[in-house]
Design goal:
The chain is an alpha+beta fold. The chain has four helices and five strands, in the order E-H-H-H-H-E-E-E-E.
């Protein structure tokens, strides 16, 4: 069975027990990438106009929330879906942008398995409820506060007969 990125899957529904936490790493916000995304997809002044943003309560351009959630998605793919027998997601339950994100910010991402149940819609799969956060880190790496909260569901294949759980999960 293949993972979300096409590699051989090693994480299955049975491995995703409630309470399991994945460290999705740290993402540094690239200012040029942040502005390019906003210019293309979310060209509101506080995302793209450096002069207006500098004079505002933000003090500088802030990232589009959709840019921020895209970075979370990339971390999720890199650290979980690249190893998991995952199918499409049946949807988001919550998406909150809780603080502005700036160029140069360092954001730590975490994912927690909240709940799971056999899928009623897709035989051979289970539905897993996941909650994620992105937290801004200070200069010394200390958490300063969350900037993103997301809660969603994913479909994960049941482990095939004979397949064993990986010894090193979560990654």
């Amino acid at each position: 069975m293949l993972s979300g990125t096409g590699a051989e899957a090693e994480l299955f529904y049975e491995d995703l027990e409630p309470g399991l936490v994945f460290d999705l790493g740290v993402t540094v916000i690239d200012g040029a990438e942040m502005l390019a995304f906003a210019r293309r997809f979310d060209p509101q002044w506080y995302h793209v106009d450096e002069a207006l943003a500098a004079e505002s309560a933000y003090g500088a351009p802030i990232a589009s929330g959709f840019f921020t959630v895209s970075l979370f998605m990339r971390a999720y793919v890199d650290h979980v879906l690249s190893r998991a027998a995952a199918a499409a997601s049946p949807g988001l339950e919550e998406l909150r942008w809780t603080a502005p994100v700036y160029a140069g910010d360092r954001l730590a991402s975490r994912l927690t398995v909240v709940d799971r149940a056999p899928s009623r819609a897709q035989a051979g799969f289970g539905t897993v409820t996941l909650a994620g956060t992105m937290t801004r880190l200070g200069a010394e790496g200390e958490p300063e506060g969350d900037v993103l909260r997301i809660r969603f569901r994913g479909w994960f294949a049941l482990r095939p007969p004979g397949a064993t759980a990986p010894a090193d999960y979560p990654s």
